[in-house]
Each structure stands twice: as C-alpha cells, then as structure tokens.
Amino acid sequence: MFMDVILLLDSTVRLATPLLLTALAGLYAERSGVFDIGLEGKLLAAAFAAAATAAVTGSPWLGALSGMVVAIAFALVHGAACITFRGNQIVSGVAINFLAAGLTVLLGQSWFQQGGRTPPLIGEGRFGTITFPFAETVRDVPILGPIYSELLSGHYLLVYVAFLAAPFSWWVLYRTRFGLRLRAVGENPAAVDTAGISVAGLRYLAMVCAGVLCGLAGSYLAIAQSAGFVKDMSAGKGFIALAALIFSKWRPVQVMGTCLLFGFLDASAIRLQGKELPLIGEAPVQLIQALPYILTVVLLAGFIGKAIPPKAGGTPYVKER
C-alpha cells in the first residue's frame, strides 16, 4: 500500500512537470500585462523542434536548445502582434495555437515521412534519469528508502529544473528590481513609462522568459518523458497550465501546488483505467481519460473564488503624448 502511494506520487511529479513549466511561462507573460492563450502552441512547437533536432543530431542538449529557440520565436511573434502592433491578444494566441498544430504535422511529414511523427529517439538521443547517491543502497530501508530512492531520485533533469523554477520565479518577481517592474507594468504601465522605463521592452523580456520556459516544457515532453514527437502530443496541457495559473491567482508557489494537484488527478486517472469503480463498475476508458479535464473545470468553477488578473492585462499600452 505504501509503495502504491509512492508510485502514484512519483507519477504525479512527472506529469506535473510540463504543466508547471508552461504555467510559469504564462505567469511571466501575464504579469507583464500580455495574456497568453498561445501557451499550447508554443509547447507543441517546442516539442517538435526538440524532437526533430535530437533525432537529427543525436543530442538532447541541442534538442532542448532548439525547443527554447523556437518557443522564444513564437513568443516574440505573439509579442510583436500584441505589443508593437497592439493587436487583440486573445486572437493572436489562438492563431499561434492553430499555426503550431498545423506546422508541426506539415514539417514532420515533409522531413521524416512518418505521418507527422519524428523518428523514435533511442539511447543518447533523449535525456536520461538522474540517480541520487546511495539510492540503490537505501531502497529497502522502511519508509525513508522508497521516498529517497523512488520519489526523490530517478527523475529527468528537467523535472528538478521545473520545481526549482517555481521558488526562483517567486524570488525574481518579489525580490528583484526586474520583478517589481514587471509586476508594475502589468498593473499600471503609464506609471512605469513615467519613470522612464520602457513598457514595450519589459513586456518583450517577459515574452522571452515565457518562451524559454515553454521551450523547456516542450523539450521535456518530447525528449525526456517521451521518445519523440507525435501529432498533438501536448494534448491540451497548455490550456490546463493556463487554468492552473488562474486557479493559483498568478502566484508562482501556488502555481506549483496547483500543477501538482492536476498532475495527481492525471496520475490517478491513469491508474483507474480498467479497474472496477463503486456503483458504476468498470468505467469507460474515455471517461477516465477525461476525468482530469472535468475536475479542472469543476475546480475552476467552484473553488477558485474571485481571481483578479493584472489590471493592464489584455490592453495594449498607448503612450500619452
């Protein structure tokens, strides 16, 4: 029973990682006043770029770098549309989602002729797990052994990066000058402009931060958790990350807790497949797969309370003359 709980929590951490990185990406963008519906598209594009590069070069490091570069490029396109040309931020984000969904399949089929997939990554072509010192030695120690050797040890590098990124983001946003300015530009860009600080420059920096984090999330999906890219492999994770961001009211540590909750729901749904449930018997696979999404809607509708986004969010800034 105890090992079952440890394995469930282990799956929770793994499944929460792409959600956490993507939600933190949205946090930087939306704290600067740019709503980012295009998280799903950047996540998908980064996953394809990472897998394609790793398949060609055999290096997961180059794959991750490629994923970040592509995600930053998509983020800057969204920034140009919303910041420079003052377009509608929702429309721009939706356009990026459609563009990424179509372009990844088109390029995948054109380059690899595998129905939009990339070649499977084997051996050194994908990230390996990290085993902590003495993990095998203490594995049989009651309670602490499984926690150390199974729950804490044995994850991919990007898992540890993700869970360090949450407190680091808190420090950046609340303990640095950049973070103060970023939060200010999302609340009152006119005051920031009056202080002689470029509103557009800060928002573009926030979009770059969002691109880096989305790039890491996509890389994790394609060259760590999976061994290559498949069509629509993000499977709505960008939207769930956006829901987690709203549920946590745009606060980084709370974002981590919410993503762990959604990861736990996903891991529980996987373990419930094929099992007898009280009153209804064996539930349809489709219902079990939809459970995390249903519960996401229920949580947002019933438990979030009043979530107030940054005041300048969604509104292009026009400098007064």
Based on the model shown, name its key terms.
69% helix; 4 strands; ABC transporter involved in vitamin B12 uptake, BtuC; mainly alpha
Short description:
The protein has helices at residues 2-31, 39-57, 60-84, 89-112, 144-152, 157-175, 177-187, 189-194, 199-225, 237-247, 252-272, 285-302; strands at residues 129-130, 155-156, 276-277, 281-282.
Descriptive report:
With 321 residues, the protein is mainly α. The protein has a single domain (2-302), classed as Orthogonal Bundle (ABC transporter involved in vitamin B12 uptake, BtuC). Helices cover 69% and strands 2% of the residues. It has twelve helices and four strands. A two-stranded antiparallel sheet has the order 1-2. A two-stranded antiparallel ribbon has the order 3-4. A hairpin with a 3-residue loop joins strand 3 (276-277) and strand 4 (281-282). Helix 2 runs antiparallel to helix 3, helix 2 (39-57) crosses helix 10 (237-247) and helix 10 packs parallel to helix 12 (285-302). The longest helix has 30 residues, at 2-31.
